[in-house]
Amino acid sequence: MTDLAKKRILLGVTGGIAAYKAAELARLMVQHAIDAQVVMTQAARRFITPVTLQALSGKPVFTDLYDHRIDNGMAHIEFTRGVSAAVIAPASADFIAKLAHGVADDLLSTLCLARACPLLVAPAMNRHMWENPATRRNISQLKRDGVTLLGPASGEQACGEEGMGRMLEPDILLAEIAAFFQPKLLLGRRVTVTAGPTFEAIDAVRGITNRSSGKMGYAVARAALETGAEVTLISGPSCLAPPPAAKLIKVVSASEMLNAVNDAIADTDIFISVAAVADYYVLNPSEQKIKKDAHILTLELAPNPDVIANVVNRPNPPFCVGFAAESENLFEFAEMKRHRKKLPLLAANLIQDAVDGDESELTLFDDDGVHPLPRVPKITLARQLIQHTAALYHRGGGSTEDTPA
What we know:
five-stranded parallel beta sheet; Rossmann fold; eight-stranded mixed beta sheet
């Protein structure tokens, strides 16, 4: 989350049980070198104290429109000048109504009205309040006014009911705030990403697969969303939670992945093939579990379809980005693969540096040469990859001509 370092953010906290999450959000902001200034409503003080948020943010907390600590007496003006954004988390139904109708009757609502910065709002309320026509009208008005909504999520609520209205968890909120600040390089473009492994059945319980957590592919999908793209994520078996705004298509085998890609590709501007697709499948898998005995088990394998080659060789293909994981001779093998598959861009790394971890490094290969990206968190790598992809895409980078390798 290094993208947020040194940013100044005003964190507004309103009254609701989700106010306790604001403490963790403030802690995370400071942990990521964000200069966070907390402003609370009087209702918020019923749920969490200013002392708690002051200790976590490292700065005085303000609640009074006429606070004597502000020399010119204009806290509602001072607090949003020079800040990167104002984030209201949680934003109660009452406070959302104030924002929608321009009510300014306390410090937080007044500074929102007088702000000179973007406003991000994380709703938190009971599901019936969220679904109420009045709240729906207020939310629609905020969107028309250019306010960014962060959530809410669906799940169990403090009242014991379940449904839409939960405030996003602090770590997800921080990720959404980081996404807000990413340049919208692919606004309105349609991106399809494949991720994770595929699984080819041997019998009812066993199979052939590749080692892949899906972390890089999911990070690429998230990074594409951050740039304003509409994203379809086609994922093999993975335990990861997909980015909420992505259209998720779950598959198991390589043939299922190919079918899903073929269905999506006609409406795709950029195709990024991150998935570790199994190279072979079992010709005659058993529908029942094969019983273990002392004999050698012989399997007959056949090659799986090449998903990215299938896309590249279509008439008028989208801009294609491939991935290569090698165990040796990275530069030689990656460049050979890029030319063989006629790819304008290929991202490659060594298997031993990439699998399962939260950090990795990549080397990008294109017609301009080789572009090494140092070891950083995968989401940072994904953002760098998407920025490079967007530059080539807008430049009109086409496929590499087939070159003998």
